[in-house]
Structures are given as C-alpha cells and as structure tokens.
C-alpha cells in the first residue's frame, strides 16, 4: 500500500513524517506536563536524602529519577513529570501527587528489621506548591521528621491526602504540628506509635477531614468519654477507623465506623 506522502522520490520524507507522528503519539501518552525546575531539584534532593541512609546498599533505586544536567524539558531525564511515583498537573506541570510509599520495597513490613531510619526534612516538600497528595507510608521515618517543622506543610493549601502509616517511630510528638494541616481530607496514621488517651482536640482541629485512619495505634482509655463529642464536630468525617487500639469497655475495639453520625 502506498501512503500519501510516499512516492519513490520522497520515501525518506515519508519515513521521517511517520516517525515524527509515532513520537508525538508516544509523548502524548506519557507526558503529564513539563516539570518545574525547582521541583525537579527538590525531588533529586529527596532521593539523595533517602540514599544517604543506606549508603551503597541499595541499587536500582528510583531509576527514573536521574539528573541529566541541563536537558531540555520533554526529554525523559529532565522532565520529572515522567518519573515513577509522581503525578503532575497537565496544565501547569507542577507536581500534584507524590507516591513515596515503601521506597525500599520490602514486601513484608514485619520482617523489615534491616531497614534504616530516614531523617527526612519536611522542608523538601515546601517546593511543591500544588501538591494534593503525599504518601510516605512505610518508610521508617525517624523521630527527627516530626521535629523538622511538619506544620510548615500548612503552606501547601491544596494538600488533601497525607499518609504516614507504618512509620513506627511516629508518636504523639507529631500531634501539635499535625493539627495545623487543616486542608487535609484524608489522613492515615495507622500502624504508628501514637498512644495513650485519644488526642481529641488535635484531631477535632482538622475540620475538613473525611477519612481518618488510626487503626493499630496504641490508644487506650475510654474513647466514648474522651473523644466522641468533640470528634463529632468533624462534620465532613465519613470514615473513622479505630480498629486494633486498646480502648476500654464496650468500645474496646471500635472497629471501622462508616458514618460520623455514629459518634454524635
Ligand atoms: C500518575 O503517575 C503514575 C506513575 O507515574 C501513572 O501510572 C498514572 O497513570 C498517573 N496518573 C494520572 C492520573 O496521571
Ligand atoms: C531479621 O529478623 C529475622 C526474623 O526475626 C532474623 O532471622 C534475622 O536474623 C534478622 N536480621 C537482622 C539483620 O537482624
Ligand atoms: C531542614 O532544612 C532546612 C532548610 O534547608 C534547614 O534550615 C533546617 O535546619 C533543616 N532541619 C533539620 C532538622 O535538619
Ligand atoms: C499510599 O500508597 C499505598 C500503596 O500504593 C496505598 O495502598 C495507600 O492507599 C496510599 N495511601 C493513601 C492515603 O492513598
Ligand atoms: C497493623 O499492624 C498489625 C500488627 O501490629 C496488623 O495486624 C494489622 O494488619 C496492620 N494494619 C494493616 C492495615 O495492615
Ligand atoms: C495507656 O497507654 C499509656 C501509653 O502507652 C500507658 O502509659 C498507660 O498506662 C495506659 N493506660 C491504661 C489504662 O492502659
Ligand atoms: C475499664 O474502665 C473501668 C471503669 O470504667 C475500670 O474499672 C477498669 O479497670 C478499666 N479496665 C482497664 C483494663 O483499664
């Protein structure tokens, strides 16, 4: 079959055109927008910070996160929107979603005794002005993370999803800064070392919360007395998971409450 641009004399031009069209189609599928330089640098710093904990022990770590120096936007290396675990806005190119769940890739959390603590500095995330979702679940974040100024994330006005679950060094020290993150709609702190009386005031401050997962923490006492009244101020709350805590009496295992009305 002869294509419209292909005659015997123009076959080179024909192939060039076809290759360009294929290239454009591939790019349209993969490009989510062009990466913002400041954000690209911050991502490389996040990678460096993680690798510092492990030294040379990890290879093939975030292999797409590479710095090709001053590449032009659009070539794979410099366009961080094409990197794994990242989503960008198609219109502005700003990073909207960071899926940094389980970076070391250990399958079984509880056999994970070789993972190193990650002294992550919250400052690195302040570059992502349009971030809506930050997933740092299961990364052995160290205690310094809680002191590195988590409240500054409140400058990210679009941040709606924060997952810090399965970071066993996270404890009640996180609460004062956490309660300032009022844009959050989904907060997962399950399987952390939060403990003791239910921190009612702190969670009641997060007025936009729709989903709160506090399962498998170490809360005890009586949730009904400490918590239910104030938590019921969270008018938008649709799901509160308190399974696997140590509450006393009939609510000793509250389970998944699917309607906030239950708490009124
Ligand atoms: C987000 O990024 C991931 C991995 O880079 C990709 O598989 C997914 O399709 C992206 N989602 C959207 C909505 O662009
Ligand atoms: C990790 O835990 C497993 C099972 O408890 C044990 O056999 C192994 O020796 C531990 N590894 C290290 C490095 O401690
Ligand atoms: C985090 O980074 C900021 C900015 O680079 C720096 O000022 C601060 O000292 C760092 N904090 C910690 C705990 O390392
Ligand atoms: C975080 O990422 C893990 C793995 O992809 C996923 O199972 C979990 O639901 C994510 N957390 C949130 C709050 O979306
Ligand atoms: C949290 O850890 C406990 C064990 O301490 C485990 O039984 C539970 O399944 C974990 N939660 C989730 C959501 O996997
Ligand atoms: C509740 O948990 C805290 C911290 O783990 C502990 O010190 C306290 O004794 C516990 N109280 C009860 C009544 O179990
Ligand atoms: C549960 O609460 C009752 C009083 O409400 C108290 O007598 C009992 O000791 C508590 N149980 C535990 C395990 O703390």
TrEMBL record:
In the bilayer, the protein is annotated as: Single-pass type I membrane protein
What Pfam families does UniProt report for this protein, alphabetically?
LRR_1, LRRNT_2
Q: Which InterPro entries match?
A: Leu-rich_rpt, LRR_dom_sf, LRR_N_plant-typ, RLP23-like
| Location in the cell | Membrane
Which key words are in the record? Glycoprotein, Leucine-rich repeat, Membrane, Repeat, Signal, Transmembrane, Transmembrane helix
Task: Name the GO cellular-component terms.
Answer: membrane
TM helices/strands, residue ranges? 12-28
What the entry lists under Gene3D superfamilies is as follows:
Ribonuclease Inhibitor
Q: Which residues form a coiled coil?
A: none
Query: Leucine-rich repeat-containing N-terminal plant-type domain: from which residue to which, for each copy?
Result: 37-89
Record PANTHER family: LRR RECEPTOR-LIKE KINASE (PTHR48063), RECEPTOR-LIKE PROTEIN 12 (PTHR48063:SF35)
Q: What is this protein called?
A: Leucine-rich repeat-containing N-terminal plant-type domain-containing protein
In which organism is this protein found? Lactuca sativa (Garden lettuce)
Kindly list the organism's lineage: Eukaryota, Viridiplantae, Streptophyta, Embryophyta, Tracheophyta
